Amino acid sequence: MVLDLFAGPGGWSHPLHLLGIRDVGLEWDEWACRTRAAAGLLTIRTDVAMYPCQMFAGRTRGFIASPPCQAWSMAGKRLGLVDRPLVHQAVADLASGRDTRERLLAACRDERSLLAAEPMRYLHALNGVGEPEWVAMEEVPDVLPLWRQYAAILRGWGFSAWTGILNAADYGVPQTRKRAILLASRVRTAEPPPPTHARLAEPESLFGPGRAQWVSMAEALGWGATDRPVPTICAGGGPGGGPEPFPSGARKTLSDARDRGTWAPMVGDLVLASRREGPGWGTRHGIRDDRSAEAPAPTFTAEAHRWSWSLRSNNQTNATVRGLDEPAGTLFFGHRANECTWVAEPSPDAPPGNGIEPPPPIRITAAEAGILQSFPAGYPWQGNKGQRFSQIGNAVPPRLAAHLLAPHIGVPFNPDDFTLAA
């Protein structure tokens, strides 16, 4: 089997399933477990720190671990950095078969810090029977020194090991999410997979095709890779006049705007949605429209090109803001200050303003956030909005995970398995 600690909603499990391998996920969060169940993923709901690991000895080929990042993340208080010497001590003790977790936990500023040492408890038990064959671990960049300690121990046990920071955007994920990665193997040289994407597309050379350009949010969400989606706000606020569709503070979404006819793709200064283009037009251009083809088209105005839309990664002053033609920044969730919103700014080619206020920020949906994390558009997220956002923000991007796993399980990576939004 493949053992997956802190399995979350399926960031590692989903690509394993696509690659023909099933894992056993250990996860405590109720809603992540419900999401995994809805996705058909095998899960043991348990506290990883309390679960006996000897039962996996003699049957584990691959080992995966993504300990919770809250103690270390820039989105939190980062008390894991204060506790890091204690975590290093726990890893060293567990690697030698001594369990000092209870004593060290009492000294930690954040009890979650010590969860980063839990993988070593399992690895020590498995190593006694010559397992696992390979290891893949992921965390926020500040955990890299800890991964280096793991790598040194694994090398002493006969593994080839590699550690480093990888950018998910370099592997086709529409998000510049950087993560500390550990890869180890008993049967092959551990090394990072070659990047498939770059900030700028590379030309073909004598050595083959160059890397593709980073995947943009617009492309991933199906909002048009070349035409630029913009919301259209008419003179009276709504389509054809009337109330403003998104009053300040309203909990609406950008998808709501598209559904209500206040969204249209645009090339240059030309609004394309002023008339029907036949059945399926909306689908081809990223607009979901459930009305019949005979229904009148929504009204759009010349104000459409005044605004360009970007995604703001959180509410903090140093938040990353990216345009739709770029990948998202790292998505943070789990706290109100980390709410991601679509924000409108005047377009560079907009005519001089006449006092018209930009539309207010619009909260990203869980479905949109999941796609930007490279989950399928129809992934069966469970729970309320907050519970879904928390799962998404903590998950490993499946597309990155597939690149990391494919060489170890001997299955070629197929980009078509990771389609963008339908």
Task: Describe the fold and architecture.
By secondary structure, this protein is α/β, with parallel strands linked by helices. It folds into 2 domains: 2-200 and 387-417, Rossmann fold; 224-323 and 332-372, no CATH class. Helix content is 25%, strand content 17%. The chain contains 12 helices and 16 strands. It has helices spanning 13-18, 30-38, 79-95, 101-107, 118-127, 144-156, 217-221, 254-259, 281-284, 366-372, 385-394, 398-409; strands at residues 2-5, 23-27, 43-45, 62-65, 134-139, 160-167, 178-185, 197-198, 212-213, 228-231, 263-267, 270-271, 307-312, 321-323, 341-346, 362-363. A 7-stranded mixed β-sheet has the order 3-2-1-4-5-7-6, with helices on both faces. A 4-stranded antiparallel β-sheet has the order 14-13-15-16, with no helix packed on it. A 3-stranded antiparallel β-sheet has the order 10-11-12. α3 packs antiparallel against α4 and α3 (79-95) packs parallel to α6 (144-156). The longest helix is centred in the first third of the chain and has 17 residues, at 79-95. It is globular and about 70 Å long. Mean pLDDT is 79; it is low at 225-253 and 257-302. It comes from Streptomyces roseoviridis. The active site is at 69.
